[in-house]
Amino acid sequence: MTYKHVKTLDTSKDFILPCRKDNLDAIQQLLPIKNPDFDGSFSTYQLLYGKGGNRIYLIGLGEEKNSAQLENTFQKLAFETQKYWDKSIQVFAEDLNENEIKKAVIGLEMAQYAIGEFKSEKEKTNKTSVAFISTEPLKKVLEEGHYTGETINKIKALVDAPPNIKTPEFLGDWAEQSAKKSDYKCTVLKHKELKKQGFDAVLSVGKGSVNKPVVIITEYTPKTNKKVDIALVGKGITFDSGGLSIKPSTNLHYMKSDMGGAAVVLGVVELVSKLKLNINIVGIVCSAENAVDAESYRPGDVINSYSGKTIEIIDTDAEGRLVLADGLSYAVKNIKPEYLIDLATLTGSVVRTLGYEAAGMFTHNTEMASTMSDIGYKVHERVWQLPMFEEYKSVLHSDIADIRNFSGTPLTGASNAAQFLEFFTEDHKNWMHLDIAGVSFGASPYAKMKSASGYGIQLITEFIKKKASK
């Protein structure tokens, strides 16, 4: 889709007419009939026809409590009706604020996502021009909404891609192409360089796969001061069999999604570059395939890590925290960022704790936690802080190494995973871990099987924007 700003509504052509709950009076002058059976409830719409036969879509914005997820109602409308649209459609935006307009654009753009990328026959799509009608200037907000929705679609495509296509090197190629198009720096460290630099935990996880691991470093640094404001670290397990601690076959095909954290990191760096925010950020993606082979790492092994600390392997299915450990250590030692955030589809424990409605947030920084939580509610990508009590740490003790990778108990799994990661942050005062296992991938009204949600792009970008404005 393309988006433009127009000051005057042409009522003889198709248009979308937003309506707040029980507030039809505000748009009565634009309605072809006096009392349509429509009350503006959230995520509802109704088709009316104008005098000349043009389509008028009433779209429900709901109440104030629905404003954070306004993109959903526009996505639903477009997904279900855009096949009937001509080459252009209007959105009456005179009564929408800038954030609502941005959300509307994000939703319209998200409706363009086609999950059937690998079908032999693809659905035909119409290229529609969308005109937002307002007397206020809208160029900047339309551009931001377009870029955001476009990026969400891109990372969804990455997460949904099959693992025989989406190898670690595929992610590296994706990042390099993105960097060229969006004007930021990308370095992909491959097997030989990983051995040279000491990414031992990443290499251990990837030992059993024919698709060798990579570490992807993306850098957007527009400020003259080269100090890095924010470093993002993403778990990029392109397929997780569980290794020798093999997973059950049920839903194993969905383990292609175990690089959801990496997708967010890759997408956010691209988006921040497109938005030209005045902030220095670095993204680090540690990517491997956790496969079963004669060379796979084993339960009982003791492996090294980038930090120099040794790790006893209890469970090879606790591999995500291993690659993140190397990514965090690299960031602390070489990047030295003011803020350090890692994202990962890390534990089933966080899903059992929070369900599919929020990510688990772990940090000792109360200001950072409050900011991230507020943003989460604002963009409807919610987070909930979980504890890292000192008493939990004892289950990560190893007699033969510096730490073990899995507690072996059925309790406090998400917290134990976070504390394992904390061990490699060198007590960084502004570190946060987000466990997005329950929100990155799941059921959707737009697909018959589980699929990517796009969670994290708005959350992390808004956090970065807040820091860039200081």
UniProtKB/TrEMBL annotation:
Keywords for the protein's UniProt record, in alphabetical order: Aminopeptidase, Cytoplasm, Hydrolase, Manganese, Metal-binding, Protease
Reactions it catalyzes: Release of an N-terminal amino acid, Xaa-|-Yaa-, in which Xaa is preferably Leu, but may be other amino acids including Pro although not Arg or Lys, and Yaa may be Pro. Amino acid amides and methyl esters are also readily hydrolyzed, but rates on arylamides are exceedingly low; Release of an N-terminal amino acid, preferentially leucine, but not glutamic or aspartic acids
TM stretches of this protein: none
GO molecular function annotation: manganese ion binding; metalloaminopeptidase activity
Location in or out of the cell: Cytoplasm
Enzyme Commission number(s) from the entry: 3.4.11.1, 3.4.11.10
Domain Cytosol aminopeptidase: 156-460
Cofactor binding note from Swiss-Prot or TrEMBL: Binds 2 manganese ions per subunit.
Positions that bind Mn(2+) 1: 240, 317, 319
Listed cofactors: Mn(2+)
Residues holding Mn(2+) 2: 235, 240, 258, 319
Active site location: 247, 321
Pfam family, one: Peptidase_M17
One GO cellular component term noted in the UniProt record for this chain: cytoplasm
One BP annotation, GO: proteolysis
Domain of life: Bacteria
Keyword Ligase on entry: no
Keyword Hydrolase: yes
HAMAP family: Cytosol_peptidase_M17
PANTHER family for this protein: CYTOSOL AMINOPEPTIDASE, LEUCINE AMINOPEPTIDASE-RELATED
Biological role stated in the UniProt entry: Presumably involved in the processing and regular turnover of intracellular proteins. Catalyzes the removal of unsubstituted N-terminal amino acids from various peptides.
Family: Belongs to the peptidase M17 family.
Protein name: Probable cytosol aminopeptidase
Organism: Winogradskyella eximia
GN (gene name): pepA
